[in-house]
Amino acid sequence: MNWHITHRTSYRYAAPVHGSFNELHLQPISNEEQTLESFDLQVSPETRVRHYHDFYSNDVHNFEIPHPHDELVIESRSLVATHGLLGLPLNARPTSRRLLKDAVKVWRCYDFIQPSRFVDTDPETWRLALDVIQDEDDVWQCAQRLMTFVHQHLKYQSNSTHVHTHMREALVEKRGVCQDFAHILLGLCRTIQIPALYVSGYLATETASASHAWVEVYVPGHRWQALDPTHNRPADETYVKIAVGRDYGDVPPVRGTYKGITDWTLTVDVKVEKRD
């Protein structure tokens, strides 16, 4: 499938601000699952935009606006082809959890069995994960049970949490948005030593297009497999990946600082359109 994605972020300040520095995770990844055909980034006020790859090989852009301004607009346009590669079947041949002891030797796995800013591996989380998987030994089946638990435990409710909400708070409140669903699944997987990473990206559905978050788990012998606890399903060709990290804190679409008044408004508009 071919997707045209427009992501527009607008900040309006009640009075001019200055010394703005911003870091962006907006450029989709190119890999065997998807191909980035084109990417264009526009910033107003106009300024020089720099690009680099971070520790997890994500594409990151940053820029500075030292002079006074009362509005900042960041707009990215991406054309991405998703290839619809078949993932691991839901009833794939079992892979014992005993094989996870060697997962720390695989690139990236070590970081993704550790706690992080919004994800814990506390004893309470470990106990909950064991209660969910019960006597299941297969890594893939364990991950699916945990995904289904998160989907059933939490109610999706827009604006019920914020970008700094910890998984523990969302667990207690039993509500959240996609990043909360992802954070809880990360914690449950990691506490039983299943490497799990946070994925930021986009999802196109019949009713809406939006930024989205899901999870990839490492299954020995079957590489990384994508699971979406918000919708209780594996990711497919309607998902476009931007970046991966330990949790949301590693890959926010826009993160920045500035000097000046704290009275401001934010508007974000995302459009994901299917192209022939």
Explained architecture:
There is one protein chain. The protein has 276 residues and is α+β, with helices and mostly antiparallel strands. It folds into two domains: 2-83 and 252-275, Immunoglobulin-like, CATH 2.60.40.2250; 97-250, Roll (C8orf32 fold), CATH 3.10.620.30. 17% of the residues lie in helices and 42% in strands. It is built from four helices and 14 strands. The strands form three sheets. Strands 1, 2, 3, 4, 5, 13 and 14 form a seven-stranded antiparallel beta sheet that branches. Helix 3 (167-173) packs across helix 4 (178-191). The protein is globular. 37% of the residues are buried.
TL;DR of this structure?
With 276 residues, the chain is of the alpha+beta class.
Overall form: globular
Secondary-structure arrangement, i.e. CATH architecture of the largest domain: Roll
What would the CATH topology of the largest domain be? C8orf32 fold
* Residue share in helix: 10-25%
Q: How many domain regions?
A: 2
- In the predicted model, the low-confidence regions spanning at least 5 consecutive residues are none
Give the assembly state of these chains.
Answer: single chain
The CATH class label of the largest domain is Alpha Beta
Total beta strand runs: 14
Strand coverage percent: 35-45%
Largest sheet: 7 strands, antiparallel
Round the mean pLDDT to the nearest integer and report it: 93
Structural class: alpha+beta
- Order of helices and strands, N to C? EEEEEHHEHEHEEEEEEE
* Count of helical regions: 4
Radius of gyration: 19 Å
Distance between the termini: 8 Å
